[in-house]
Amino acid sequence: MDAATREQVITRADGRCEYCLLPDYADEWPFHVEHIVAKQHGGGDTLDNLCWSCSRCNLHKGPNLVSIDVHTNERVSLFDPRRDDWKSHFSLDGARVVGITATGRVTVRLLNMNALQRVELRRELIELGQFEI
Q1: pLDDT tier, 30 (very low <50, low <70, confident <90, very high otherwise)
Q2: Where are the domains of the chain?
Q3: Is residue 71 pLDDT above 90, yes or no?
Q4: 77 CB contacts (<8 Å, ≥6 apart)?
Q5: What percent of the chain has pLDDT above 90?
Q6: Taking 90 as the threshold, does the pLDDT of residue 96 lie above it?
Q7: The model's pTM
Q8: How far does Cα 35 stand from its chain's mean position?
Q9: DSSP result, the chain
Q10: CB distance 35 to 60 below 8 Å
């Protein structure tokens, strides 16, 4: 991927993970330019299929496009940062990300957004005024 495309992805995301909203400067691991639809599923390198992702969200998401909603036992599409509005699918309860739709619920669970270390980091950032939705 060329540097210009990478910079466009980062700028569009305002330097935050487009799944969990963690700022890239706050993570100990480098962020990734992530394919929303993996190449193995026909996704391309176009800007409308790329997002800025923390390594945790990217590695947990992998090539997945759907997951099972434990409330309904139905297959549900994961959150797509290019097509979905974050606030329509998620909210914060303190420092925990809460899925408020089936898409939000499956994404929070699959990406393990509320792992203890992530919640603690999010809490610290909220207290410092460096995390907002």
Answers
A1: very high
A2: 3-127
A3: yes
A4: 65, 66, 103, 106
A5: 98
A6: yes
A7: 0.96
A8: 12
A9: --HHHHHHHHHHTTTB-TTT--BGGG-SS--EEEESS-GGGT--SSGGGEEEE-HHHHHHHTT--EEEETTTTEEEEPP-TTTS-HHHHEEEETTEEEE-SHHHHHHHHHTTTT-HHHHHHHHHHHHTT----
A10: no
